[in-house]
Every structure is written in structure tokens, then in C-alpha cells.
Amino acid sequence: MNATEAKQKIETLRQDLEQYSYEYHTLDDPSVSDYEYDKKMQELIKLEEEHPDLKTPDSPSQRVGGKPLDAFVKVQHDIPMLSLGNAFNDEELRDFDRRVKNGTDAEVNYVCELKIDGLAVSLKYEDGIFVRGATRGDGTTGEDITKNLRTIRNIPLRLKEPVTVEVRGEAYMPKKSFMVLNEAKESNGEEPFANPRNAAAGSLRQLDPKIAAKRNLDIFLYGIGVWENDPTDAHSERLEKMKELGLKTNPEWKKCNDIEEVIDYVNSWVEHRADLDYEIDGIVIKVDSLDQQEDLGFTAKSPRWATAYKFPAEEAIT
Ligand SMILES: NC(=O)c1cnc(N)c2cc(Br)sc12
Q1: pLDDT tens for the 318 residues of the chain, in order
Q2: How far is the CA of 284 from the centre of ligand 1 (A)?
Q3: ipTM score above 0.85
């Protein structure tokens, strides 16, 4: 096989493997067996070893790569990753709604989303290629944890379109993985993690990507930092476009026409949060229109166009 044929074969294998991984991890609907996947991965690795000039960081063969880091590099977020104001009961949600309506003349629609109890992260894609992942840090400065985030199978190394965008989301550890990890820790005489959030944060702050790769972490993407040629006018459109790009968004989001519908959504999840296979600590409510978000703006710390309804702390998983 000459270099041109090898390049074409490598590209075909990568596209197949990315599609299989997306079907398996994000859609939960694999079209091939693990054997078929592994056979193609071995073929890709062999071809890349025979043609090292064709091995690139976005290859599926490069997910768990490199030796342990000595330390994490600090990174500046182009747009600060802010925190949210809180609401603790229905009346405080109505207060939020009144403040929003005082800040805009148009009719207000909201988007409600589950507030994932994990570690907030930023993923940067340039021309569709995953180039950098970082923790939220203090909102302005985070840590570069790209190598660890690359081990999360639901983070595509290449988007379905060559867009340049920075997306934000929450990396988390599913409840089942948390229990298995803590059982292993306790049987090794190690201190168990207190909760899945600490386990996710502790795993992503490992300097050795091979450790993070074993922690079965997952992610939901829910926001946008910088987006070149952003084609959307509403947050709900962004969630749909992110999914089209191959990014994993949480399926439970809901567009609500008024605050009473928001309150119904919140109260339904107070009752059903234990049914989820991941932990949530509340509901995030956002004004859907991006123009209205811009009109409402920000306080020093938080957007005026969003709030977080906080649940009481959940009983520890035992
Ligand atoms: N869907 C969302 O916007 C969302 C979900 N889960 C979270 N932990 C957070 C935190 C911020 Br800040 S936003 C958000």
C-alpha cells in the first residue's frame, strides 16, 4: 500500500471508528460488535505505526495518550465561566421571573435543564478538531486537562462539521461507576470519595491520563463560550445544534412558556431525581432568546438571564 492509499485507508478507518464510538457511547445504539470495532482500531494503529507522519492528535487511536504530566498548565478563558444565582423555592423562582420581565419588553420563554453535579469544563474546537479542554477554575483561569478529557468517550475528537466553537459542560461520574470505584478503593484500604462530584474532579485532576481513562467518566454539554459565525438565536437552538455536531447534550431539557411551567418542571424533578443514573443538584433555568439574554446582561458574578433552583442535598450513596 503506498502513502496515498494509506492516507485514504486511515481516513476511512477514522470516520468508521468515530461513527461507531458515537453510536455506542452517545446514542447507546451500536451498529457493530466490539470485535468489529477492535479489529478496525488495530488496523488503524498498525497503519499509523507504518506511516507515523499520518498519525494526528484527532485520531481515535490517540485518546489515551502520552506520559503523565508534571503539572497542569493554567489557561485563560476567552469568556469567563460564571456561576449562577440561586433560588430555593417557588416564590424565589417567581421573583426571578419578575426581575427578568422588568428587564425586557418582549414575551419571555425559558429553557429548563438538569443541573449536573460534576466538574464544569470548557472544550475548544478549531475547524471541528478538539484542541483544548480546561477546568472552570475560578471562572477566569482554569487548568488545561485536555489529555484527561480526551479519554472521555462521549467527547468527540472531531465534530460532524468543521466549526470553531468553545462549548461548556459538566464532566461527571455515573452513580454506578462511583460505587464500583469506591468498592475498589475500600478493598485496597484507600480512602473512598465522598460523592460522585469529588470522584469526577479527582479523576480529571490526575496527572496521568491512564488513570482518568479507567474512571468511566461521562459528560453533558450545555453552553457556548465563543462561536465563530454562531447560527443560532436561542439557547434551545444551541442545544439542538450542539447535538447535530455530535456533542452529548442532556435529553431532559424543556422549553417552558412561563414561570408556572418552570415550577411544574422543577417539582417533577424534585420527585424523580433519584431515578437518574447520575447526580443532579438542581435545575438551571435560562431565558431562551439570545437577544433577551444580551439585553439582561450580567451582575459582577452571574447572568441576570439565568438562575439555578437548588435541591436539598441528596442522601449519600452507600
Ligand atoms: N444545563 C446547564 O446550564 C448546567 C447544567 N449543570 C450544571 N452544573 C451547570 C452549571 C452552570 Br454555571 S450552567 C449548568
Answers
A1: 888 999 999 999 999 999 998 888 888 899 999 889 999 999 999 999 999 999 988 899 988 777 888 889 999 999 999 999 999 999 999 999 999 999 999 999 999 999 999 999 999 999 999 999 999 999 999 999 999 999 999 999 999 999 999 999 999 999 999 999 999 999 999 999 999 999 999 999 999 999 999 999 999 999 999 998 899 999 999 999 999 999 999 999 999 999 999 999 999 999 999 999 999 999 999 999 999 999 999 998 899 999 999 998 766 555
A2: 6
A3: yes
Q: Whose CA is nearest to atom 2 of ligand 1?
A: 222
Residue 115 annotated among the catalytic residues of the structure: yes
**Cell 466490539 found at:** 34
Contact indicator for 102, 166 with CB cutoff of 8 Å: no
Instruction: Report the side by side order of strands in the sheet with 280-287.
Output: 86-87, 306-310, 280-287, 110-116, 254-256
From the candidates 7, 39, 67, 115, give the one annotated as an active-site residue. 115
> C-alpha grid cell for residue 215?
474512571
